[in-house]
Structure formats: structure tokens, C-alpha cells
Write a structure and sequence with these properties.
- By secondary structure, this protein is an alpha+beta fold.
- It has two helices and five strands; from the N terminus they run H-E-E-E-H-E-E.
- Strand 1 (19-22) and strand 2 (26-30) form a beta hairpin.
- Bound molecules: guanosine-5'-monophosphate (5GP) and zinc ion.
- Residues 6, 15, 17, 29-33, 85, 91-94 line the site of guanosine-5'-monophosphate.
């Protein structure tokens, strides 16, 4: 637990969030400002700043749960996008790694 980290505080139950799925090591909850009909964040309960900081087991569990979220939200069949914004130029604003699960509409690239 990193006291000044928003997502650590969500894991601790100090900040409310709308949960989607939870495993022993990972939590998935709805993004507060959705960019698509389905927009869920998947985070490890342990604090890692960014995607490259995760150990392989944690990274694998985040990806496994991201797909379970897509299935639970009904977007797995039509397709979805997983995004790890990383660092300032990558658009990361919360420095507790999170995988965005986006779906429910055609996603254009580049985003805009
Ligand atoms: P980033 O820009 O770091 O990749 O994504 C951070 C995400 O966290 C944004 O999509 C933002 O809407 C979301 N977010 C920020 N604060 C909160 C919050 O308090 N609760 C939830 N559920 N999502 C948040
Ligand atoms: Zn954290």
C-alpha cells in the first residue's frame, strides 16, 4: 500500500469504485470517466508504477483478468482493446499500473 496512491486506496477500500471482477492479486473496476461503452481498469493489488515494472506472473494475471472482464462485459466476441498508458508521453496520469479494457464500439487508431 502506497498511502498517496489513488489506486492503492481503491484496493484498500478507502476510495469507492464499481468492481467488475477480483482475484487474489488483481482487481477490475469501472473507469470513472469512460471513453467507450465498456471501459474497465484492471490493476494488480500490489503497487507497481507502470507495465514494465510488473513481474511476469502479475503481468500474466492482469492480462488473464482483462480477457475475463471482456467476456463478463459481453465485448469479447466483437473485440476490444487493451491499453497500458506508460509515462508522461504515454498519457499515464495514475502511476499505479492499470490495463484499460475498452470495447462496445469500433475503436479508431490513432485515438481522437
Ligand atoms: P491513465 O491516463 O493513467 O492511463 O488512466 C487513468 C484512468 O483512471 C483514467 O481513465 C481516469 O478516468 C481513471 N480514474 C481517475 N481517477 C479515478 C477514480 O477515482 N476512480 C476510477 N474508477 N477511475 C479513475
Ligand atoms: Zn498504488
Amino acid at each position: 500500500m502506497t498511502a498517496d496512491c489513488l489506486f492503492c486506496r481503491i484496493v484498500a477500500g478507502e476510495v469507492p469504485a464499481k468492481p467488475v471482477l477480483e482475484t487474489d492479486t488483481v482487481l477490475a473496476f469501472h473507469d470513472i470517466n469512460p471513453q467507450a461503452p465498456t471501459h474497465v481498469l484492471v490493476i494488480p493489488k500490489e503497487h507497481f508504477p507502470a507495465a514494465g515494472d510488473m513481474d511476469p506472473a502479475t503481468a500474466g494475471e492482469v492480462l488473464r483478468v482483462a480477457h475475463l472482464v471482456a467476456k463478463a462485459e459481453g465485448v469479447a466476441e466483437d473485440g476490444y482493446r487493451l491499453v497500458f498508458n506508460t509515462g508522461r508521453n504515454g498519457g499515464q496520469t495514475v502511476f499505479h499500473v492499470h490495463c484499460h479494457v475498452l470495447g462496445g464500439r469500433q475503436l479508431n487508431w490513432p485515438p481522437g
